[in-house]
Amino acid sequence: MSVSVLSPTGPLGSVSGLLQVVTLLSLVLLLLKAAQLYLRRQWLLKALKDFPSPPSHWLFGHKHEFQKDQELQHFLKWVEKFPCACPRWLWGSNFAFQVYDPDYAKVILGRPDPKSHEPYRFLVPWIGYGLLLLNGQTWFQHRQMLTPAFHYDILKTYVRIMADSVQIMLDKWEKLITQDPYVEFFEHVSLMTLDTIMKCAFSYQGSIQLDRNSHSYIQAVGNLNKLICSRLRNAFYQSDFIYRLTPDGRLSHYACQVAHQHTEQVIKLRKADLQKEGEMEKIRRKRHLDFLDILLCAKMENGHSLSDQNLKAEVDTFMFEGHDTTASGISWILYALAMHPKHQQACREEIQSLLGDGAFITWDHLNRMPYTTMCIKEALRIYPPVPNISRVLSKPITFPDGRSLPKGIRVTLNIYSLHHNPKVWSNPEVFDPSRFAPGSAQHSHAFLPFSAGSRNCIGKQFAMNELKVAVALTLLRFELSLDPTRLPIPVAEIVLKSMNGIHLHLKKLL
Ligand code: HEM
């Protein structure tokens, strides 16, 4: 029996009539949405017609092509087959246009296109709109305001702090290996780099490495890396409303809270310090301020201080960017050196001749370790800590080979694939530091661990100093070798991680 909406028969009839209307409306909406998605996909297929990629399913995209632990390696097969760039379909009309060619990278990084909404929006609840996620005039103002925090005179004073943090980590390792010579590096190195950034940028007194509370921040960052990446790949997790209701959404919310508690505490402590007598005077006398003091003392163009929200976003951004990237860099470099004992020994000899027992490492030493620097760069090539970055095209683009894309397309610069592209690097999987020997010729955009152009990494010099200090002091104290039963599997989260940790064998040198 059918009940017409127009002829309700009592309360039951009106309820079922209403249900029919709702069903009908939902169907119409669903059809409209499907038509919209169909048209968008057709438009995209047309826009991308010059850029082939393997056949994709209209709904599941290229999902069937990839296994989670083989993604990076598998994509490299595409790099060999499809020159310069290709689209990788995620689902429906959702895709990432992957670029892995230096000429293409040069064109993209030379333009002022903003950061794309996807995937960066998933970072917002955690790090807010700080330098990494801001665009336009506000980004420009913040970049200008924060650049002096990375002035040469300031960076110089950080070398001592970096060395002290590294020594604390090495002391811990020395104790640990009396029980078990195999150590999982990533967590120790993360704590060490967090310790360093806390002391350098946030004037923190004390040692994070010895304080158990900070482990929860490191754990939260680890979880957020994983959660954001799995959200990116899951069609059902795109809506904030739905995501919040899922177990992953709740875990992500909790991890953000833990991360915020950590940064709020840092701001609170420094504000309290600045209330103490004479502290403001000390700051006024300083020629260059620390990062957090710049933020706390900042006056914007309108004469107001930085809002609490902006201040928090910058602290959250630098707390994350300033330690997770360098932790990835150092861990993978040490792994690469463990895999190549001859290069490891050559670095060690260079450092021994420079530092002797290494009791004192200074700024001047950092430019006098050419072989070690070449090895660090080669490891950053094979294991770039930031594997991908994205932009959205604010106007059409034409690449040097004549192919073009319309406005609105999201472009992902796949740094990992660029660094492994056999058309750019011969035998890309071979660890060969001589690629970075002085005088060796490279395309200006073939090696981009820190990106390039106006939105390059503001912490590049800070990071390179920290990598050098950590590698030098570690090699002076330990001989590193692999754990053949637990070789790391690189995985592209926001930062390059290993699915199963980075386990190395440590032998104390006499
Ligand atoms: C080995 C270590 C590091 C690597 C490989 C690295 C890499 C990068 C890359 C590729 C970008 C561009 C991101 C994009 O376009 O979306 C970037 C931006 C950025 N990095 Fe780093 N980074 C490292 C260390 C650091 C450190 C130590 C800090 C802070 C102390 C830092 C702070 C930032 C910030 C704030 C941005 C955004 C800059 C802007 O858009 O103006 N990074 N980094």
Give me a quick take on this structure.
Helix content is 54%, strand content 9%.
Descriptive account of the structure:
- The protein is an alpha+beta fold and 510 residues long.
- The protein is 54% helix and 9% strand.
- The chain has 19 helices and 11 strands.
- The protein has helices at 10-47, 71-81, 102-109, 117-120, 124-127, 136-146, 152-176, 185-202, 213-232, 240-245, 247-275, 279-285, 291-297, 308-339, 341-355, 363-366, 370-382, 415-419, 460-477; strands at residues 85-91, 94-99, 182-184, 388-392, 397-398, 404-405, 410-414, 478-482, 490-492, 496-498, 503-508.
- The N and C termini lie far apart (91 Å).
How many beta-strand elements?
Answer: 11
The CATH topology is what? Cytochrome p450
Output the strand order for the largest sheet: 1-2-7-4
Number of helices: 19
**Radius of gyration using CA atoms only:** 26 Å
Total domains: 1
Mean pLDDT: 93
Please report which band the strand proportion falls in: under 5%, 5-15%, 15-25%, 25-35%, 35-45% or over 45%: 5-15%
What level of helicity do the residues show? 40-55%
The molecules bound to the chains, other than polymers, are: protoporphyrin IX containing FE
Quickly name the level 1 CATH class.
Answer: Mainly Alpha
The CATH homologous superfamily is named Cytochrome P450
The N- and C-terminal alpha carbons lie at a distance of 91 Å
- Uncertain ranges: 1-8
Overall CATH architecture = Orthogonal Bundle
Taken from the alpha-carbon principal axes, the silhouette is: globular
